[in-house]
Design a protein that fits this description.
There is one protein chain. The chain is α/β, with parallel strands linked by helices. It is built from eight helices and six strands; from the N terminus they run H-H-E-H-H-E-H-H-E-H-E-E-H-E. It has a single domain, classed as Rossmann fold, CATH 3.40.50. About 35% of the residues lie in helices and about 15% in strands. Helix 8 links the parallel strand 5 and strand 6. It is globular. The structure holds zinc ion (ZN) (2 copies). The site of one zinc ion (ZN) has 7 residues, from loops.
């Protein structure tokens, strides 16, 4: 069972006066020590054994294992439904920090239970466009990675992948166009070499998998041996 309290402390108590602590899943006010309500945590449709252990999509329905993706494994925390969906949408707001903490703790436990955490050499979040990140104040994929590797020796690297300006909203594109659009958004830094490393790649949601696929391809192009994705939710 994942701990849904953050230990409190004076800083959080004072912060709560300025930004009253809210549950990222129902938007209700919660004690400054909490990350979410216990009811919401219990209501979330956490990923179960109907999810493929390899690609992280629904077995017999949307499993992409036959499609030769660049990532090796994708581990989602929950289904992109109900409260978990609200949690992902909360990344637009301050309470999204709580959501990243909750999802990150769940993912860390799942990766650890499957022996995957021990394999990881380096953590790389799917980057956000710089302007977008400045506006939001954080990149949720980075927060997620930070929670997963906390108190481990695994370094978090935000200097490997870069995302550049996107002209059109991805949501208006079809699968093919979307894949094409993704290609022009991401790039890997020169002079980086990930020789034989196992990389943890984090993001908030997996839909078609094209973002993770493309980013994993860039990491493999830099010599990575294996890419393990961890995402808050799966569609
Ligand atoms: Zn709640
Ligand atoms: Zn699969």
């Amino acid at each position: 069972m994942v701990e849904t309290e953050n230990g409190g402390g004076l800083r959080l108590f004072l912060l709560d006066l300025l930004f009253p602590n809210r549950c990222p899943f129902c938007d209700g006010f919660i004690n400054y020590k909490k990350l979410c309500c216990d009811e919401c945590f219990g209501d979330i449709m956490w990923a179960d054994d109907k999810i493929c252990k390899v690609c992280g999509k629904l077995l017999y329905k949307s499993c992409t294992c036959g499609q030769n993706k660049n990532y090796d494994i994708c581990v989602p925390a929950a289904y992109y439904k109900g409260k978990a969906r609200e949690g992902v949408l909360s990344f637009k707001f301050h309470k999204g920090l709580n959501a990243a903490e909750v999802f990150g703790r769940v993912l860390r436990e799942r990766l650890s239970d499957r022996g995957l955490l021990d394999e990881i050499d380096i953590a790389v979040p799917v980057p956000m466009e710089k302007k977008h990140q400045r506006k939001r104040g954080y990149n949720q994929a980075e927060l997620l990675a930070r929670v997963i590797v906390r108190d481990t020796e695994i370094p978090l690297r935000t200097d490997i992948l870069t995302r550049t300006n996107v002209k059109r909203s991805q949501h208006t594109l079809g699968a093919e166009e979307r894949h094409e659009a993704v290609k022009h958004q991401f790039s890997a830094s020169e002079g980086v070499w990930l020789d034989g490393k196992t990389v943890l790649l984090t993001d908030d949601v997996i839909t078609t998998g094209s973002t993770l696929d493309y980013c994993a391809g860039l990491l493999k192009g830099k010599g990575a041996h294996k890419v393990i994705c961890a995402v808050c939710t799966t569609v």
